[in-house]
């Protein structure tokens, strides 16, 4: 099943669906006529039909039935009722892609049919500006073509990498919650800049360019983080003074503990913690 030749239905027309639909259309990957969304909110339906130019329905089942692939993009706590609505319909024989955080492929298969082809995706918020990081995992019946299809959809809003489903709790801890760790660091850096008397808009500009530049330097050089860190840390210099404080405060260990806590919480939320 090729992305360009497929009809895709998005159940739930919230922020993530908007990002992915805009990403697919901007990239010219799918024609607007091949996309249909459904949502309970008339305001969201109006946005999609009037501003984005795709069909927007109130009826989830009708939206899903007209598609080759169905992308589930409602909040995890709503997903059970949406699966109930879709069960017993032809949707069970289509490719079902779920981006609902923490919901196992098995839960979706049980809600539809054991042989329904399910691919689960763990995206993150920078997808909203086309710079997301997502991992995807196949359910029991999904084929390689199905995972390739899901990958192509998610690549319209960033990078997407394949993973075994057992790794998705760790992925949640790494890239799902990851943006918050970076925001936390930026918050602290900007608080410090303020106490040093630096003006706000300029500090923000410098801090953002620093984070983006450091990430791109690591990506483009292919070097390990530790190597790049050592390279900017001259003995007796300013960076060494700063990193010494971080080491004494146990920041690295705290980050490691934080990620384990996120992974554990992801397992608990999925009901097997
Ligand atoms: N945002 C992220 O960065 C992010 C990251 C990782 C994973 N995810 C996952 O992506 C999924 C979507 O997230 P989101 O941020 O796009 O959520 P969202 O903006 O809240 O979108 C969900 C949409 O579904 C609508 N809806 C509620 N009940 C429905 C129903 N029964 N049938 C059809 N539509 C219904 C909601 O309407 P109302 O608002 O009126 O209820 C809302 O417009 C979630 O499962 C989330 O876990 C999101």
Automatic annotation (TrEMBL):
<dbReference type="InterPro" id="IPR029036">
    <property type="entry name" value="P5CR_dimer"/>
</dbReference>
<feature type="domain" description="Pyrroline-5-carboxylate reductase catalytic N-terminal">
    <location>
        <begin position="8"/>
        <end position="102"/>
    </location>
</feature>
<keyword id="KW-0521">NADP</keyword>
<feature type="binding site">
    <location>
        <position position="60"/>
    </location>
    <ligand>
        <name>NADPH</name>
    </ligand>
</feature>
<feature type="domain" description="Pyrroline-5-carboxylate reductase dimerisation">
    <location>
        <begin position="165"/>
        <end position="269"/>
    </location>
</feature>
<dbReference type="GO" id="GO:0055129">
    <property type="term" value="P:L-proline biosynthetic process"/>
</dbReference>
<dbReference type="InterPro" id="IPR036291">
    <property type="entry name" value="NAD(P)-bd_dom_sf"/>
</dbReference>
<keyword id="KW-0560">Oxidoreductase</keyword>
<dbReference type="Pfam" id="PF03807">
    <property type="entry name" value="F420_oxidored"/>
</dbReference>
<dbReference type="GO" id="GO:0005737">
    <property type="term" value="C:cytoplasm"/>
</dbReference>
<comment type="similarity">
    <text>Belongs to the pyrroline-5-carboxylate reductase family.</text>
</comment>
<dbReference type="GO" id="GO:0004735">
    <property type="term" value="F:pyrroline-5-carboxylate reductase activity"/>
</dbReference>
<dbReference type="InterPro" id="IPR008927">
    <property type="entry name" value="6-PGluconate_DH-like_C_sf"/>
</dbReference>
<feature type="binding site">
    <location>
        <begin position="73"/>
        <end position="76"/>
    </location>
    <ligand>
        <name>NADP(+)</name>
    </ligand>
</feature>
<dbReference type="InterPro" id="IPR053790">
    <property type="entry name" value="P5CR-like_CS"/>
</dbReference>
<dbReference type="InterPro" id="IPR000304">
    <property type="entry name" value="Pyrroline-COOH_reductase"/>
</dbReference>
<dbReference type="Pfam" id="PF14748">
    <property type="entry name" value="P5CR_dimer"/>
</dbReference>
<dbReference type="InterPro" id="IPR028939">
    <property type="entry name" value="P5C_Rdtase_cat_N"/>
</dbReference>
<keyword id="KW-0641">Proline biosynthesis</keyword>
<keyword id="KW-0963">Cytoplasm</keyword>
<comment type="function">
    <text>Catalyzes the reduction of 1-pyrroline-5-carboxylate (PCA) to L-proline.</text>
</comment>
<comment type="pathway">
    <text>Amino-acid biosynthesis; L-proline biosynthesis; L-proline from L-glutamate 5-semialdehyde: step 1/1.</text>
</comment>
<keyword id="KW-0028">Amino-acid biosynthesis</keyword>
<protein>
    <recommendedName>
        <fullName>Pyrroline-5-carboxylate reductase</fullName>
        <ecNumber>1.5.1.2</ecNumber>
    </recommendedName>
</protein>
<feature type="binding site">
    <location>
        <begin position="11"/>
        <end position="16"/>
    </location>
    <ligand>
        <name>NADP(+)</name>
    </ligand>
</feature>
